[in-house]
Amino acid sequence: MTGPVALESRLRAAIRSVGGHMDVWAVFEDAPLFASVVDALADGLEPHGPTKVVAVESRGFLLGGAVAARLGVGFVAVRKPGGLFPGEKATVTTVADYRGNRTELRMLSRSVGPGDRVAMVDDWIEVGAQALAVRELVESTGAAFLGLATMVDQSADAVAEAVPVLASLVDADTLESD
C-alpha cells in the first residue's frame, strides 16, 4: 500500500493517546514515516509557490525546517518567550489556545518581507491560535501569507476560513483516543 491512504494509515497507527494527550513523537522517531510526512507536506505546498516556510517552536521547527529544505526555500523561526533570538523582532500575542492560554510569539523582522510568499507548517491545528498569530506576523512585514500545511487537522470551519489549510495528512477525528 502506497500513497496518501497508506500514509494516513501509518500516521493513525503512530499517533496514540497517552494519558489523555495525543502523542505525535513516534512520527519523528520513525525515519521512513517522518520522511514520508515531510514529502507529503512539501508536495502539498509546492503548487502554492512559497518562498519561505515559517513554523513555531518546538515540533513545528522539526517539520518546518525539513519541509523548507525539501522545497529549497528559507526557514523562518517563530519563537515563544524565553529563547535567545537576537535582532529586531515583530511580536504578537495569540488568542486563547485549546488550553485557554495566550502566548507571545516573536519573529525576526528581517526574516520575511514584501515579495515573500510564506507558508506555515505545524504538526497539529485545532483552534488556530498560533496560526492566526503567525499570519498576523507575516502580513505585518508586507509578505503574503499563503496558509498552513499540517500533519493533523482538527480545525473548525471558521479557522480554515482565516487560515487556509493547504495540506493536511490526517483528520484528528480518525485518531484513536483513550
In total, the number of domains comes to: 1
Instruction: Supply Rg.
Output: 16 Å
Neighbour order of strands in the largest sheet: 5-6-4-3-7-8-9
Total helical elements: 6
Provide the residue-averaged pLDDT. 93
Q: In whole angstroms, how far apart are the ends?
A: 28 Å
Structural class by SSE content: alpha/beta
Ranges where pLDDT stays below 50 over 5 or more residues in a row are none
In the CATH hierarchy, the third-tier topology is known as Rossmann fold
Q: Give the C-level CATH assignment.
A: Alpha Beta
What is the strand tally?
Answer: 9
Largest sheet: 7 strands, mixed
How would the global form be characterised? globular
Order of helices and strands: HEEHHEHEEEEHEHE
- The amount of beta strand, in percent, is 25-35%
Q: Any idea what the CATH architecture is?
A: 3-Layer(aba) Sandwich
Helix residue percentage: 25-40%
Outline:
The chain has six helices and nine strands. The chain is α/β, with parallel strands linked by helices and 178 residues long. The strands form two sheets. The chain has a seven-stranded mixed β-sheet with strand order 5-6-4-3-7-8-9. Strands 1-2 form a two-stranded antiparallel sheet.
